[in-house]
Amino acid sequence: MAQKKIVVVGSSNTDMTIKSGKLPIPGETVTGGIFYMGPGGKGANQAVAAKRLGGDVTFICKVGSDLFGDNSIAGYEKEGIDTSHILRSNQASGTALILVDAASENCIAVAPGANSDLSEEDIDSIAPVLKQADFLILQLETPVPSVLKAARIAREAGAYVILNPAPACELPCELFKYISLLVPNQTEASLLSGLQCHDEECLLEAVARLRAKGVQDVVVTLGSKGSLVCHDGQVERIPAQIVQAVDTTAAGDTFCGAIAVGLSEGLSLPSAARFATKASAITVQRMGAQNSIPYRKDLI
Ligand code: RIB
Question: What is the pTM for the complete model shown?
Fold first, then answer.
């Protein structure tokens, strides 16, 4: 049987990370950390995760006409991702500055550059690819009108549309009806539902509100507490694996890419979430974004 097509539309960044004992407070300098640079961006991380875990992946993003952009595309090609629809911008490629402390908490500042240039016209130009997708994965590091347009085109053509609403922001009502699966964390579920959730009861109310807006299924990721899988009116709690986290960057991205692969292979949503939980447990035990994402063979 032909493999299902997973298309990811989203951001591509170069991440510059310093891991140190503690995160600085405003005005403070913290020294003694270690620095590394590597490929990142939520869209790219999700595309790489889906590919390494066994998916047939096309990645669409916008990068600058610069060395970072060239390196990013070369990296995606090396992964075996279809890069033939990646676009170039006159703006610099996206970059992220990431600080990680000893307890694996992080702070991220992103200069989106070319990512913010992914326009609705660009989405029109890749409409044929979106119409052939079985699964479309989206996040919010590219402009919301473009996210909305991509979701509409793909869903109307019959694709299963997954939105990871990160980083959190207000979204147009229309977008929700094109979302087959929303994968927010607790903060994002709170913002999108208008509730300030601190417990499961509140999160379930938030999920009910999101479904009332038109979202079909919801998986709320809860970090070390696992995830809440809400589908067909049922709720399943998937525990996290107990591991020693060193850097949680790209854990959520790995989860999203993995869930798409699981679903594309015919797993139920709870089973796909269990598969994704295993994958992201590996990511948090390694440093970096894409450098930390596992391959299928790592998930024994
Ligand atoms: O989700 C992690 C990603 O967020 C990093 O790779 C960084 O580029 C930011 O976009």
Answer: 0.97
Q: Both tokens of residue 295?
A: 């391959």
- The residue written with tokens 């994002």 in the block is 188
CA–chain centroid gap for 154, Å, is 18
**Which CATH class for the 5-22+34-290 domain?**
alpha beta
Catalytic residues: 253
Determine the residue of 188, 249, 280, 286 to mutate for testing ligand 1's pocket, defined as the one with the most ligand atoms within 8 A of the Cβ atom: 249
pLDDT band for 232, please (50, 70, 90 cuts).
confident
Evaluate whether 131 touches 157 at the Cβ level (below 8 Å).
Answer: yes
Q: Cα 171 from chain centroid? A: 17
Ligand 1 atom at minimal distance to the Cα of residue 94: 8
pLDDT digits (tens, 9 = 90+) for 127-168: 999 999 999 999 999 999 999 999 999 999 999 999 999 999
Provide the residue ranges of all domains of the chain, joining segments of one domain with +. 5-22+34-290
- For residue 253, the ligand 1 atom closest to its alpha carbon is 1
